[in-house]
Amino acid sequence: PKKGQDENIRMAPVSWDEALDQVAGRLSQIKDENGPQSIAFMGSSKCSNEENYLFQKIARGLIGTNNIDNGGFISGQFLSLLLDQKTGGGCRPIPLSDLEKAEVVLVVGADPNHSLPVVSYYLKRAAKKGTPLIVVDPRKTELVSFASAWLRIKPQSDLELINALAALLHEKNAHDAAFIDRYAEGFSIFAYGLASLDVEKVSRVSGLEMQRLNETAELLKGKRIAFVIGHGVLQQRYGIHTMGAIVNLSLMTGSLGTE
User: Fold this and answer.
1) CATH code of the domain made up of 91-252
2) How do beta strands 149-151 and 225-229 pair?
3) pLDDT tens, 222-257?
4) Rounded distance, CA 80 to CA 77, Å?
5) Cα-flanking dihedrals φ and ψ of residue 53, to 5°?
6) Domain residues of the chain, as ranges?
């Protein structure tokens, strides 16, 4: 642990005892001056059940506040709201077991081996059974060794990549016309935007060669896609636009709402 030593917030190492004493003392002071509800606890979805239980026990039992949340829940709410806006509330994330039934899996900005190991287990099992696995991530995660394709994009270029894949699929006439006619609205406007997209510019922005983009589009062509979205997308400044592009890609390929 480190502690600010002066008004310039320069940090210097301190012992665990000193750090914990200061945090406990400051929490007690805030509680005495402003009441327990003035304190909020922000946990982590990466903690174990036991760790999160102890965390909420400190909040409720020692401090006396019910203001408890975690980053994973906030990201999940964000995703659910976007799905509701796009589908009218008729769609939710699929069960993990469905990943093994997918025709192809696109993993964007996620490292489930560290964040949610159970998801990583299902993905690896699906890959071993022959399901094509496409990993989109600037980092070489453990999942890359199980992938059919690793798209090592430049950071913050997820949105451009997803739109480029949609444009290439549309160019190949690989959209699900029957699904779109039945369930989607405004596709003609969306398609006009795809037709005017400069995919070669996306190639430069993302750092991926055109051949790589075309190969990926061929992997997706004619298949129902299962998407695994991680904090690399959900916590971006413009993550909502990337998520919107992912939902659009899911709709145009008939992947949304299917097993």
Assistant:
1) 3.40.228.10
2) unpaired
3) 999 999 988 788 777 778 889 889 989 999 999 887
4) 5
5) -65, -45
6) 2-72, 91-252
**Residue 9, C-beta contacts closer than 8 angstroms, at least 6 positions apart:** none
Amino acid at 220: L
Helices (H) and strands (E) in the chain, counts: 12, 8
Average pLDDT over residues 152-160: 94
Nearest to 249 by CA among 184, 203, 178: 184
| Range with top average pLDDT, 2-16, 92-106, 158-172 | 158-172
Task: Residue count of the chain, please give it.
Answer: 259
Single-letter residue type at 188: S
In this predicted model, what pLDDT tens digit does every residue of 130-154 receive, in sequence order? Answer: 999 999 999 999 999 999 999 999 9
Where do the H-state alpha helices sit in the chain? 16-34, 49-57, 71-87, 112-115, 117-128, 158-171, 177-183, 187-195, 199-206, 210-220, 231-234, 239-252
Distance of CA 105 to the CA centre of its chain: 14
Nearest to 184 by CA among 88, 57, 81, 65: 88
CA dihedral 144, 146, 149, 154 (to 10 degrees): -10
Query: 136: which strand partners?
Result: 108, 151
Judged by DSSP in three states, 43 sits in: strand
